[in-house]
Amino acid sequence: MKKILSLLLALLMVGALVTAQAEPMSWWDQFLNLQETHENVIWKPFTEETGIEVEYQNYDAASFKEAFDLAMGTDQGPSVMSYAWGGNEAVAKYNNGYFSPLSVNKEDLPDYVQATLAEGYTMFDGQVYSFPTFAHNHYDLFWYNKEKVSEVPQTLAEMRELLKSLTNAENNVYGIALPLTDTGRMNGIINYLAEMSGGVYDIDYATGQYVFNDDITKAVFKFFVDIWEDGSVHPASTTLKTRTVRERWANDEAVFAIDGCWYPGSIKNAFGAEYLDKLGVAAAPVVGETRNPVCTAPSTGTFYLSSFCKDTEAGTNLMLRLLSDEYAIALAEAMDQPPLNTAALEKAENVAEVYVEGCKIMASQMGYRPEPQVRNSAVGDVYTELMTISPNVGDIYVGYITGAITDWETALDEYTAAMNAELDRAIETCRSMGSNVSRDDFIFSNYVRGEDYTSDKYAELK
Amino acid sequence: MKRINTLKRHRTPYGWIYLFLAPTLILFSMYTLYPIGATVWYSLTNMRSFTSRNIAFVGLANYRALFADSQFLNSLSVTGRFLLMAVPARFVLSLLLALLLNWKRCMGKTFFRTMFFLPVLTTSAIIGVVFIMILDPTMGPVNIILNRLNIQSLASVSLLGNFNTALPTTAIVWVWKWLGNSLIYWIASLQSVPDELYEAARIDGANSWQLFKSIVVPLLIPFAVIILILTVSDAIRVFNLMLTLTNGGPFFATETVEVFIYRHAFQASSPRMAYASAAAAVFGFAFMMIVVIQRIANAAVKRGEQ
Predict the structure, then answer these.
(1) How distant is the Cα of B133 from the closest Cα of chain A, in angstroms?
(2) Which of A277, B101, B147, B195 could form a disulfide with B155 if both were Cys (CB 3.0 to 4.6 A apart)?
(3) Among partner residues B138, B161, B272, which is closest to A402 by beta-carbon distance?
């Protein structure tokens, strides 16, 4: 009897120990290339210090959003999550209760981090919710096989000719492979190229109107139509995603691929460092002779504590490790997203020259556009109300080359009209619910396209 | 007192059966009835996602918007065309194969039955990924064979990436995957026909065609109705295969209603849960109508037999 009682007591003690152990932190992101870096620089030291385990789950960017929305409905979300949505959707995500605030004040963060924080992106109601860990960037760099290309042209017309000359269908070699199953990415590629060519990404801030049917956007769209009709685009592109485009490039089936600074890291991790020897990078060719920077809104955070995080103190401890020098250097060495702390690029070792070159091109191409939400925080309500309109520019491109659409110019006109109608509807709905917003919030008379819109420019409008 | 006596008189001797039914009833309510009720309720609100706040009742607004949405009408059309292509193909092919594999002189019956059934056991997502490789326009074996056969019009086409070929191609993959299921049903039905009927007919001088027409077909009709219902039911639920094969593309060419619902509820950067719920409710209602029509047809056939 005594033995049984002792056994029961021992079991109870073990049970109590198990239940007393801290609940693990779950970490979801789309940065597969950074898994090892996070493991060594963030998670292991955190677990050693706090005794809290970190459980990792990777998704690609498109699946991440779906997985998180499903998790929100079933109470199974992560503690820490990467941000996989569009820049101006952060307010909507905040309004929908996706995030938890960090237990830290803005003043406690390094100056170079404070400079990036903005209400409606990384701060809400004056509280810090996140911070960017990556430098401001986009995904329109042209990566190519140096063994086949010595110089990348400056204009799209010259690029078309180059792609045509590189294509040899009989030997299964094509000028370029495009990720056409991800029409959201293709939409971005066309719009970024239009902006770099002197057009707009989506909204023309002189008029406050969405513009996807101006001459420059049409010229960029026509370039992609032409290279498809020339046979320069890998024919499997309509079934390729960003990751599978890299396979075609590594397998020498495509000479060019369009991707972000993380391309060398992705290639090295997936296929081996020897593939970096043939990798070259260039800025995207544009319609005319001059190239404008890509101007975006303030950066969103890279990671957020989600509303599922039960221990925000521990979560904040985990997140702040992302600001260490060690992490910035490790980021550069992983050749993934360029670190926010650009000094780390100089300190990093074993970094391919092509990665540093890509980061430098990117840094020279980035700027800030006006952001209606910074001018009037109520615009956040409009962003929450806005519904996704499809087909977007990327969808229209795929529709045209696969034979579903015969007149892409009319389709761009219709998409432009639908986006403007949706913005008007969202503004009207918000006004009817008491928000003080109007189309005028989207008009910035003092904005010069291609120039940085700094914080003092907002004051000029008042 | 009188009431107690009445209750005693009506008490069934199997009252405790409800105790054993309770787990099923509870789980059925939780996982079937509740989601149906919740879907209908969501469809009458302006709910954007599971975490939406300030949800308001909007009546039939989502349904009105749905029937004015050309993409929803397209998804209904895609689902309908997929049914028209895939259901007859699976139904007829599996019957022909079952007749062959039920034929006494057929060699290697067990081997072929196993081979045809293997795809049924394979996960749709894996089949989707494998078929993307098989149908690759440059390296895939299908296009290489088409090229060698000099069928140039198709050899250079990305069968899954072309607006005109994507839906028939997904239908062929689906038929291949599920053929084994119908095959098993048909073989079981054929084996239920008593040998004596065949023997008697043969003694009367019937040939193979007459045996099929006058004995097999009449006896298989009740089974055929059930197999048809099951095939339609399977063909409507093609979500996972479509998602991995084409994700509804290119340009919505393979966007069935299920993929449409999923896109609006979860894939869109700005989700519309209520709108997707309205689509789900319409789709569920349409499916119920198909089942009702099939049941009526089944009853009519049975009445005809009597």
Answers:
(1) 10
(2) B147
(3) B161
> How far away is chain A from the Cα of B121, in angstroms, using its nearest Cα?
25
> What is the value of pTM for the model shown?
0.83
Q: SS3 for B126? A: helix
Give residue A240's Cα distance to chain centre. 19
Q: Is B170 on the interface with A (CB under 8 A)?
A: no
**Which residues of chain B does A96 touch, with a Cβ-Cβ cutoff of 8 Å?**
48-49, 51-53
Residue A402 C-alpha from the chain's centroid:
27
Domain locations in chain A as residue ranges: 20-131+303-336, 141-296, 372-389+407-460
CA distances to A128, A406, B242 from A186, in Å: 33, 19, 21
Residue A363: exposed, middle, or buried by beta-carbon count in 10 A (0-12, 13-18, 19+)?
middle
- Domain made up of A141-296: CATH architecture: 3-Layer(aba) Sandwich (3.40)
* Chain A: closest CA distance from residue B215 (Å): 48
Whether A395 contacts chain B with CB within 8 A: yes
Q: How many CB atoms lie within 10 A of CB A37?
A: 21
The 10s digit of each residue's pLDDT in A178-236 is 999 999 999 999 999 999 999 999 999 999 999 999 999 999 999 999 999 999 999 99
Rounded Cα distance between B22 and B26, Å, is 6
Q: Is A418 on the interface with B (CB under 8 A)?
A: no
Closest residue in B to A382 (Cα) is B270
Q: pLDDT for B191-200, tens place per residue?
A: 888 888 888 8
Amino acid sitting at position B225: V
Q: Is A153 left (phi over 0), alpha (psi -120 to 50) or beta?
A: beta
Chain B interface includes A66 (CB < 8 A): yes
Q: Which domains does chain B have, with CATH numbers?
A: 63-305 (1.10.3720.10)
B77 Cβ under 8 Å from any chain A Cβ: no
Looking at domain A20-131+303-336, does it have CATH number 1.10.10.10? no
In angstroms, what CA-CA distances link B99 with B94, B102, B191, B217? 9, 5, 10, 11
Q: Does A95 sit within 8 Å of B266, measured CB to CB?
A: no
